UniProtKB/TrEMBL annotation:
Keyword GTP-binding part of the UniProt annotation: yes
Protein name (record): GTPase Der
Quaternary structure note: Associates with the 50S ribosomal subunit.
Taxonomic lineage from the root: Bacteria, Pseudomonadati, Pseudomonadota, Betaproteobacteria, Burkholderiales
Chain's role: GTPase that plays an essential role in the late steps of ribosome biogenesis.
Amino acid sequence: MKPVIALVGRPNVGKSTLFNRLTKTRDAIVADFAGLTRDRHYGNGKQGKHEYIVIDTGGFEPDASSGIYKEMAKQTRQAVAEADVVVFVVDARGGVSAQDYDIGKYLRKLGKPCLVIANKAEGMKDGAQLSEFFELGLGEVFPVSAAHGQGIRSLVDMALALLNWTVPEDAAEEADPAVIKLAVAGRPNVGKSTLINTWLGEERLVAFDMPGTTRDAISVPFERNGQRFELIDTAGLRRKGKVFEAIEKFSVVKTLQAIESASVVLLLIDAIQGVTDQDAHIAGYILESGRAVVVAINKWDAVDEYQRELVKRSIETRLGFLKFAALHMISAHKRQGLGPVWDSIAQAHRSANCKMPTPVLTRLLLEAVQFQTPKKTGVYRPKLRYAHQGGMNPPIIVVHGNSLEHVTEAYKRFLEGRFRKEFDLVGTPLKIQMKSSE
Ligand code: GDP
Ligand code: GDP
């Protein structure tokens, strides 16, 4: 599991600027997908080998008793509760405010590992002006400039050092590729537990071990038609005896972690509600994680033709960036449409782990170029020479040649379509990288 870093502080100290710095290092597979919501407060970050999750919080008033501030305080407390380390951001230029004292007091009581960061410290003489922040009683204060990218690297180092965090030795690769690790993700009430219980009640599905219910984490190995699966811990669910139960608390961090440890994610949407902001956010995390995905709209039994049209349209407009995924209309409750979901899960898994030999890729590439030559921009005409597979899960195709930086997005999409068709890739993101030689 990746460590979770929460950013806390009063409004305007630079938390969102810092959030963007901390999360943008990640190789952005999302860049090409239009319509992906960007106003998220949870993000993945990476520094060297170290990966982490960052939570941004709104401005924090620990004692707020009403209105929007109360809601923000609630969300901040939840973020802090989920975090492994708290980064308390103050304004190096503004000095200590009453609000900072309140937040400091709250964090001292909380007793979590905490790092105080004085932002906007670009061009300031080391230390001198920061001494007043020691009054917050949280130890040393470190100057950074989120806007100018100064001190960010050591901030991450220090935050992870507070946790004695080390990268688990080859933990990622030990997974058995024959086992599909499946996460059912979705907002509360979309029908996750209903679906899982319906599955587990199926005759064709053999669940192996349903050990005690003491632990919060869920992991049920099972087999269906000869394919082995592992159902992994899903946010907002708890096992009670032989059935799963929805619990009230929904945790974005748990959802993120479930997505990360899955090999295929089944995203459930509620047909009655249509696609909500939260659905779009979860879909965004799935895309960003590079995981294979299948989308199922549940409660299809409960909506009329008119609503069905609306839902289909909201899928197109709001989840357009998951176009590569198979889409199913199901009823977990009435056990309708579930068979094809299994087929799509297997297909998504197969697609994500597809092996694409260099000769085949190169032949396809050259055929594509012959069919449609990339456009000339200015004096440059990109020359695509050969392609090889640069990675799996999600598959990456690296195209080699000259002047490839002038290949348009539209042309990359054209290539993607050809590759997808040839290798029958459904349900996995596919990344195409251009590598120009000198
Ligand atoms: P938040 O409300 O805490 O999320 O703060 P924002 O990230 O929205 O930043 C508030 C303002 O501070 C914006 O105008 C930023 O451009 C500015 N800001 C953020 N980081 C820095 C910094 O390192 N130096 C300076 N001078 N300004 C910054
Ligand atoms: P979770 O929070 O995602 O685990 O959602 P639950 O499985 O607890 O389901 C929430 C509510 O939706 C419950 O009242 C279910 O009975 C209902 N529900 C689940 N699946 C379906 C379905 O396919 N059709 C209808 N009409 N209701 C459903």
